[in-house]
Write a structure and sequence with these properties.
By secondary structure, the chain is mainly alpha-helical. The chain has helices at residues 14-21, 27-38, 41-48, 52-62, 71-75, 81-97, 99-114, 166-178, 180-183; strands spanning 122-126, 131-134, 140-144. Strands 1-3-2 form a 3-stranded mixed β-sheet, with helices on one face. Helix 4 crosses helix 7 (99-114) and helix 6 (81-97) crosses helix 7 (99-114). Residues 12-184 form the DUF4765 domain.
Length: 185
């Protein structure tokens, strides 16, 4: 009898099943599980000595109902209503559904409030291209293409196979804005 690939079944290893039981956004339990699984002394020391600020941000990130934030109003200058709604809905969706994104945003907000750092609001510019510009730590400019009705124009990278969407580019450019100081330090 000939055996084909479709006849072969696989069984998940115990490690895979255990890793799936703890979600990666539950950072502290996830890191503890990895620490026990891999028995790495350096990793163990890092996990055992997490800064209090990290743990606080992690807890905030998991509690999105208590830590709601109007991201657009905090980080952006006012703009046309349709553009405002499009950007706000995208950022709010990821803030509600991604603990990692929420953690980054909360870090920037906490740092701005606690360290009394002035948050340079980003201005949205209608452009033909997607780009972010920030000159010498001043005001950020997020350039996005919108059609005449105010809706984002999908990127055209000569039929790029990786499927980059306007939403993904918006997130990338927004992260460049909030992490600008850290990326250029």
């Amino acid at each position: 009898m000939r055996i084909t690939v479709s006849d072969i079944s696989t069984r998940e290893s115990q490690q895979t099943v255990q890793i799936q039981a703890i979600r990666s956004w539950d950072t502290i339990p996830y890191l503890s599980m990895l620490d026990g699984l891999y028995q790495d002394d350096i990793f163990h020391e890092q996990v055992s000595n997490l800064p209090g600020e990290y743990i606080k941000l992690d807890e905030m990130a998991k509690d999105e109902e208590k830590n709601r934030l109007n991201i657009y109003d905090f980080f952006f200058e006012p703009t046309h209503e349709i553009i405002y709604e499009d950007i706000k809905s995208t950022l709010d969706f990821y803030y509600s559904n991604s603990a990692t994104f929420r953690r980054l945003v909360n870090y920037k907000v906490e740092r701005s409030i606690n360290d009394d750092v002035d948050t340079n609001k980003c201005e949205v510019k209608i452009s033909l291209n997607y780009s972010y510009e920030n000159i010498d730590g001043g005001r950020g400019y997020l350039s996005l293409p919108f059609d005449q009705n105010g809706y984002p124009i999908p990127p055209d990278f000569h039929n790029c196979v990786n499927g980059i969407t306007s939403e993904k580019l918006l997130l990338d450019l927004f992260l460049k804005h909030i992490l600008h100081d850290h990326l250029n330090a």
